[in-house]
Every structure is written in structure tokens, then in C-alpha cells.
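Tutorial sheet, problem 5. The two components below are modelled jointly, 284 residues in total.
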Amino acid sequence: MAVCELCEESGGEIIFRNEQLRVVLVADANYPGFCRVIWNAHVREMTDLAIADRSTLMRAVCQVEAAQREVLQPEKINLACLGNMVPHLHWHLIPRFADDAHFPHPIWAASVRQTADEVLAQRRALLPALQAAVIRYVSCAS
Amino acid sequence: MAVCELCEESGGEIIFRNEQLRVVLVADANYPGFCRVIWNAHVREMTDLAIADRSTLMRAVCQVEAAQREVLQPEKINLACLGNMVPHLHWHLIPRFADDAHFPHPIWAASVRQTADEVLAQRRALLPALQAAVIRYVSCAS
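Model answer (C-alpha cells):
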């Protein structure tokens, strides 16, 4: 059996980790603030999780979404659980902006523009605040 | 304000509908069994829903995923909540196969092959069973 890269590696810069899951920041030059919520155990699909664990995972996804909205104020949040290449349960959380490289298309489509460097730099400057907000939200009870 | 197409229209062939949400079958020739779970009220993001409603919606998403896995036995399920073009909360649930038009890439990327007509016809033949399974799963308590 092939090695799973999300079993072997963190999948990004870890912002938060507990026994069940971790939140990482994705290094994508076009999408500052792109996060992943990764279930630590090697599970393939949402419906392979116990129902209580599905709730735990989606609560974390929503908490990270809340942090992204608060700090980055994006036009839209995109959530996706794909895993065709790495079938280890993980959620992509992508803050989308009207001036981003693919808007209004999904980020996996062909790009339609280049976002201005200074705009990307302004968004990158918010990443420390995003990391603090993620930790604050995921440490909440609800 | 522009009219919202998911407020005005069903968004697909309705399989199930209750007061809060509906499940529809998407007419996509390359992806038989592609379903959407659509929140009936005009809400933009998951975190605009009350926490109990988020759970209700994700429970339905998982129930439809379970029906798709049981009937279609896909290689992978892809879940996505995008809404850049239609910012009315809806989930895409796409059964993925190694021989589908984009695998292992997301369906929004460039296609990499044409699936054989007879394979697509075999999958389409399962749609009545899928519709029955969706109704059975979403009518369950858990």
C-alpha cells in the first residue's frame, strides 16, 4: 500500500492540532488564508466517520470559516472535501475575492486573472491575525 | 437586487424536500448521480446558519453521500459548497470514478478523458435506485 502524505506529513503550517484533527495554513501564493482542516486518522469519506466525529469535524470547519470571515472579509467562502488524489479526509477552506485568480470560478478551473501583488501582500499581512482568530474560534465550545 | 435562481427555481430534479432543505438530482451527462443539497432559505454561508441548522444540513449531506456510496459504489465522493455565482447555500455531492471525465482532478478542472457511453448508461440505469436510497436515508433519524 502506498504511503499517505497526510498520514506522513502535516499538510501545511499547523495552526491548531488536537487528538482528532488539525488546522493548517496552505502555502498558495494566490490564496492567502487558504486553510485545511484535516482529520488526523486515515479515514476516506465523511460517512466513514462516526456521526459524533462528523459533527466534531464540521464544527471545526465552521469555526475556521468564521475566523476567515472575521479577519479577511472575503466575498465568499468555498468549502470542499475532495480527496481523489489523497483519500485521507480533509477539508479545503478557501476565502474568495472578486479580484482573485479564478473568481467566480472554482480555484481548480483555469485562472482568469492575476491578482495585483499589493493586494496579495495586504492579505498576507493579515495571516498572523487569522492564525490568532482560528485558535480563538476552535477553542470555543460551540 | 438580482433574482436568486435557487430561490426562484428548484436547482434540479427534486428527490426529496422538507421545510428546511431539498435534495435534487443534477442533469450532468458526465456525472450520473450528481446531487445537490440546497437550503431552502436564502442564506449565504454555512456560518450564517444557526448551529442546529448547520447540523441538519450536514446530516442531510451525509445521508445523500451514504445513498450514493451504496448504490453507485464510486471511487470517491466529492463534496463542495462554493456559491461564488449563486450565493445561496447549496452543497454539490459528486460521485467520482477512476474513468470519469476529470478524475483524479476536480470536476471544475479541464477534462482529461471521455467516459465510454456504455459506462455512463450503466450508471444512469442506477438512478431510480439512487433516488429510492436517498429518500430512505434522509427519512432516517440519524
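Marking note: Chain B is about 30% helix and 20% strand. Full credit if you identified this.
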